[in-house]
Amino acid sequence: MPDLFTVNQLAEELGVTPRAIRFYEVKGLVAPRRAGTTRVFDRRDRARLLLVLRGKRLGFSLAEIREFLDLYDADRSQNSQLTMLLARTRQRIAELEQQRRDLEQTLGELRGVEREALAALAGRAATEPGVADAPHAAE
Amino acid sequence: MPDLFTVNQLAEELGVTPRAIRFYEVKGLVAPRRAGTTRVFDRRDRARLLLVLRGKRLGFSLAEIREFLDLYDADRSQNSQLTMLLARTRQRIAELEQQRRDLEQTLGELRGVEREALAALAGRAATEPGVADAPHAAE
DNA sequence: GCATGAACTGACCTATACGTCACCCTGTGC
DNA sequence: GCACAGGGTGACGTATAGGTCAGTTCATGC
User: Fold this and answer.
1) Which ranges carry the HTH merR-type domain (chains A, B) (predicted)?
2) Do the Cβ atoms of B86 and A133 come within 8 Å?
């Protein structure tokens, strides 16, 4: 893996458009260096973009993702800053744990739907062998 | 708990605006009955709204949530429908499992940030007792 | 020295998920 | 008889997350 990238390279690798990445820059989520006017991304920029995309998969807005990223490079030199960081981090953790509960519950329900559908299909296969579909097929 | 509700009652209970609930109706996520022109929600409508809100907490769009709700009251009378239901359900499950992996990874990282912040605070409390904040406080 | 391709910057367009507003209808109390 | 609360319907406004398009710059090849 190289250690410098263009927008287009990163866009293709990450499965997004260059436009999206430029948009993230405008929103302060990445800050690639420049060679003249051309954006030059390093591995740290790439890592941040990976975090952005993960945040999106979790359903967060770009603003929320930005706050999340801020936790990583927050100022750790003052106790007051550390205390704020700790509080914000814990709140984020609590939100994610709520999300996990929602996720588990939804997964449980969908597994129920899956089992039910499987059972219904199996039941029909047993009582109506050879019939591929629908009751009216017997008419 | 009553078994019929007005928009306003449900809105207050669920912590959303009546406007939002009416919007969900327009989008086909709920279909309350009517008494004249007035919406009348029953417990099933309420349950659907709870599912909508959970879907939102998971970051899904209303269109996605609608597809999710469709899994619950899909037509189970034909084998072809059951097969489609099974396929869609399994795809949803796979997506949610990806989301869970993202969630676990993010939670792990945030717990790392939390530990780090705690350690830094503890370290300073030991080496600089009585100092509440910042190096320049000594000037 | 000029076309070409890759990058850039606006400016405008789009869909989603509501909020806000104005205005209407209707049953109830006084 | 009428004000008023509670509910309803458009129509328009707003923020987010980009897509699309036009026009510009810049290094290179021929």
Assistant:
1) 4-71
2) no
Q: Is A2 domain-assigned?
A: yes
- Position A89 in a domain: yes
pLDDT tens, residue by residue, A15-62: 999 999 999 999 999 999 999 999 999 999 999 999 999 999 999 999
- The model's pLDDT over A71-93, given as tens digits with 9 standing for 90+, comes to 998 999 999 999 999 999 999 99
Whether residue B48 sits in one domain with residue B108:
no
Task: Mark whether B131 and B81 lie in a shared domain.
Answer: yes
Shared domain check, A85 and A47? no
**Mean pLDDT, range B45-51, rounded to an integer:** 97
Q: Are residues A96 and A125 in the same domain?
A: yes
For residue B69, is it within any domain?
A: no
Residue with smallest Cα–C1' gap to C18: B20
What total number of domains does chain B contain? 2
CA of A19, C1' of C13: distance in angstroms: 15
- Using an 8 Å Cβ cutoff, are A69 and B65 in contact? no
pLDDT of A123? 86
Residues of A in contact with B58 (CB under 8 A): 59, 99, 102-103, 106
Domain range enclosing B24 = 1-58
